[in-house]
Amino acid sequence: xxxxxxxxxxxxxxxxxxxxxxxxxxxxxxxxxxxxxxxxxxxxxxxxxxxxxxxxxxxxxxxxxxxxxxxxxxxxxxxxxxxxxxxxxxxxxxxxxxxxxxxxxxxxxxxxxxxxxxxxxxxxxxxxxxxxxxxxxxxxxxxxxxxxxxxxxxxxxxxxxxxxxxxxxxxxxxxxxxxxxxxxxxxxxxxxxxxxxxxxxxxxxxxxxxxxxxxxxxxxxxxxxxxxxxxxxxxxxxxxxxxxxxxxxxxxxxxxxxxxxxxxxxxxxxxxxxxxxxxxxxxxxxxxxxxxxxxxxxxxxxxxxxxxxxxxxxxxxxxxxxxxxxxxxxxxxxxxxxxxxxxxxxxxxxxxxxxxxxxxxxxxxxxxxxxxxxxxxxxxxxxxx
Length: 385
Prior knowledge:
Elements: E1 8-11, E2 14-17, H1 18-34, E3 42-46, H2 51-63, E4 66-69, H3 76-86, E5 88-94, H4 98-101, E6 111-114, H5 118-124, E7 138-139, H6 140-145, E8 162-164, E9 172-176, H7 181-195, E10 204-207, H8 214-225, E11 229-232, H9 238-248, E12 252-255, H10 257-264, H11 268-271, E13 281-284, H12 291-301, E14 305-309, H13 311-314, E15 318-320, H14 322-327, E16 340-345, E17 348-352, E18 359-360, E19 363-364, E20 371-374, H15 376-380
Parallel strand pairs: 1-11, 3-4, 3-5, 5-6, 6-7, 10-11, 10-12, 12-13, 13-14
Antiparallel strand pairs: 1-2, 8-9, 9-20, 14-15, 16-17, 18-19
Helix pairs in contact: 1-2, 10-12
């Protein structure tokens, strides 16, 4: 059987090596730094699943800044709120999204435009004329090619600042603080234990969900940074996922329960058409999974399906391996170990797990970096979120 090389990101017929992507991100970091983006600042990312999403995110990390993924389904007012609230110093957006994005950006904030690639245009039925950046636009490619790579910073845990709508009122930005190399090591350990992703493991994955969501974002960034193979789906398609699993001998997946439901609704002859034996670690979150759905997926894919809770605000304070579900299916909705929230300042909640709670009845928990839940000017002026 032919070897499938790792260290790549694939989208449609296009691909880029992990090393080339990191190099491009380092060049973008230099350019953004020249524009005044620095440690603790924010970069708005209004992109679909594409190489540039990883480049912008890794560039922000190299600067010690936050990449802020913006839900590209949002209208101008919604996008404007997030960009203002996070204090974005620059914005990167796909060309077809400009009609909603451009009015949301203040005139003094630079906007870098990325051409919308063919596979994304085909998946969403986007007219070709909308996929090309305007002639007078600042182009993301120019930012990359005009600057040398910026040296990587010391390891830390700053990554994406995710806006969650799981609260009342306006979305809240979850801003994890940088606690340095030791916290980064512990977080990577948690990613290994919960997501199954580590530099010493073979990881071939399909990014099934939009990268502006918290879990696909963290999962995708770690998979690529750790040198895995990441295949991007422009949008979720159940049978196409099965085809990709067989073609690339996918080992790891992140899904949500709705995807499992759609997979199970495929005709039996379609479900049995593809070889899925390569799967080793399929994790799902974002919503409770009905016991019957999880049981059906385990019967189909085998005992490779894991579950976790609470990732956006805290990391993943609770996860459950398939062996525990098989032993006690009713525990699919179990609550995890208690998370203690200690208020250290008006806008910062420090989330910690007791060391003794690291493993409870087969469930895994790992240390969590402090977070700041932010709302508009109230948070920045010292008010509570």
